[in-house]
Write a structure and sequence with these properties.
Length: 268
């Protein structure tokens, strides 16, 4: 759809004229002292939200509706104001816009006028949208949901004495959180033999980290089984070393009663 327009911008209003005397749209940036030269369909906005649609005769404009911007549409001679008003009200309601001072009684539009009227209404809506006034329900931007805080865990002497067992992803092991910044992985731990690959056959970040940790302790591993106790820096390192991560290792370390290391240590 191509529409030819003539536009005049002043400090208080913008006047948009359709070519071939097809009507005028006026955008008022004020709610005071509005004087209409012709009878028109109006759209009132408050804080960029459409709040009312109606008709007004020529002369000083008055309303009880609170608004800070106004749009008037003076259509071409062959468009009935009442029919255009009804089509704009219908458009607004169908788009979820709540209108003030709306009677709810629809004006019946004859079928003979529908085609011409709809074409004109669509042109008006297109112009308004291009000038920043779409007939859509105005919603405040949704605030991004805050990411949940990473769980905190507290080491205690009591926990340091508890053996936790791991049986997941081809690995079996026994570990203790024996010092605040050290995990003790007991000898005899079985490790996942091969790291999982990405869909393209490449190694993921966790797999690469796991391989690096394994290289640091390769003298204590034979045939994917640890031959000596190994000290690792964190629960995360235990998971990377044994099964290349990929799961929450705080939930994989479980004591003899079925209680996880997370349950023992998480700070509420």
């Amino acid at each position: 759809m191509n529409i030819n327009l003539s536009v005049l911008i002043t400090e208080t209003k913008t006047t948009i004229e359709f070519n071939n005397k097809q009507g005028t749209i006026t955008l008022f940036d004020t709610n005071e002292g509005i004087l209409l030269e012709h009878a028109a369909v109006y759209v009132l906005l408050n804080e960029n939200t459409i709040v009312s649609i109606g008709r007004s005769e020529a002369g000083a404009f008055h309303t009880e509706v609170t608004f800070n911007k106004m749009i008037t549409i003076v259509p071409s001679w062959d468009i009935e104001l009442g029919y255009l008003e009804q089509q704009l009200i219908t458009e607004a309601l169908e788009n979820g816009i709540q209108l003030e001072q709306h009677s709810g009684v629809a004006t019946k539009i004859p079928s003979s006028a529908t085609k011409t009227l709809t074409t004109y209404k669509n042109e008006v809506l297109m112009v308004l949208e291009k000038f920043g006034y779409p007939f859509k329900h105005h919603e405040e931007p949704k605030k991004a949901k805050a990411k949940p805080a990473k769980a905190r865990h507290k080491w205690t002497k009591e926990v340091s004495q508890i053996e936790f067992f791991i049986d997941t992803r081809e690995s079996k092991a026994t570990a203790l959180w024996h010092k605040r910044n050290e995990m003790l992985l007991k000898a005899g731990a079985t490790m996942m033999a091969k790291p999982p690959l990405n869909k393209d056959g490449s190694l993921g970040f966790s797999a690469k980290m796991g391989q690096r940790i394994r290289e640091d302790h390769q003298d204590k591993v034979k045939n994917n089984v640890t031959t000596e106790d190994i000290i690792l820096k964190s629960v995360n390192e235990v998971g990377l070393f044994l099964y290349f991560g990929g799961t929450n290792s705080w939930l994989e370390l479980i004591d003899a009663t079925g209680k996880t290391l997370n349950e023992w240590t998480v700070v509420q």
